[in-house]
Amino acid sequence: MAEGTEAVQSVLYYTEAEAFVETLRTFQIKDIGSDKWETQREHVEKLNIQAVVDATNNVEESIKELLITHEKIPILIHELIALDLWKRNVLPKIFEMKFNAETSFPAYVVMFYEAILIGLLEVLLFHSECCEAAGDALHDLLQYCQHKLVWLVAGEEDWHDISVESISVSDAKDELLKRHKKISFDVSLKCVAIVRYIGEHSKDVSLGITTRVLNTYDFPAIFAGLIDNPPWLLRQDDGQWLKYDNNKWNKHSHDDVKNLSKLEGQLWIGMLQFLMSEHCQRNYQLNSSNQASILKLRAHFHPQILNQLPALVDLQRYLEELSLLSTPASRPPLILEQVPEFYTALENKCNGKWKELAVKHYKEIFCMSKERMKKQADKFAATYDMDVMSDLLSEPPKCESCGEGAAKRCSSCQTSWYCGRECQVKHWPKHKEPCKLIAKTMKDVKAAKSQGGS
Predict the structure, then answer these.
(1) String of b and e for 372-398 (b: at least 16 CB within 10 Å)?
(2) Fewer CB atoms inside 10 A, N or C side of the chain?
(3) Predicted model pTM
């Protein structure tokens, strides 16, 4: 998007992106799914795609600069919190109702917006200036992340069935429930990077943020719990391992599974920051509970992980020293913490009327009129045009089967690439169900457009 960078494709012109950013505003929970809310969702999706393209191609990150200049990062966090409250309080009540929606597409678009928002924030908060621009809204974002990561640590869900292949394409309610579960899992994993970035930049923001990261929510102990019992790792009966990476389950041998994924690297780098940086050591309050959780990490050091992240040798030595010490009897300093404002204000505005909102949104979102569904389908198809998305790839596509360069794409789903027919036929048993699901989604889009025009 930056001027003079002709080699990089753009989703938005600069003036178009600036207009989108300038018009960003907050919505109440009751407004979710409305026409104005839907327009802003479309704008944010395009801003997110452009931000990812800019970051991937290492060009001027104009979206980041625009959001900082116009002070809109807190609005993105507000919208994320509003959607989180909607999914926790309204959506379950909709699922309890008599469910006879003909298609899951309109509701899925609303649910998927959470992944768009968290993905955009992940790109932005890598930069310290974005953390500073977020200001007090970071208190709400940290509460959001704490809720998501504790949910993962609790291990109350079975995650191995969240692959695209397992999602039903026949029953709208069942399909939505499984998609909701997958989106929630993916979003929760992204919270790891966000917490790591905020923790790394907390010294540049405020002591209140540092206290919330280290002590109020004790993210070091949460990270340790995730490393000790990772929900993205599953051992099969045949001795092979399944690891959830890049939004899907992949098979690994016993030796390969020890190689750190990007997510696991984020966790270990976060632990290095929390336990080894002078700023965090000065403010982190150790007690018998979190010390015991952190010391469990000693069992996870092995040659492969130390080769990938040599800095972990210092962390390993620190943990050995910590194991020899008794828990220090420290008196926590008196700090007046700020209450997360967005959660409080949004909940007060709803005044507990979640059932009424569920009835309203079931009619407006799950039973959307043909005219509105056509408009939404047009916007979705334009935003995720497969030919445009292919032009934005930072490197040539690779064959799904052999991993070599690919020039042909599946004619049905338009998302999987192959070097030739032989590899496509070989990969078909694995690709069949995802292909059917994606093709059905695109069919829903086309059906909505035709219905609206009839």
Answers:
(1) bbbbbbbbbeebeeeeeeeebeeeebe
(2) C
(3) 0.81
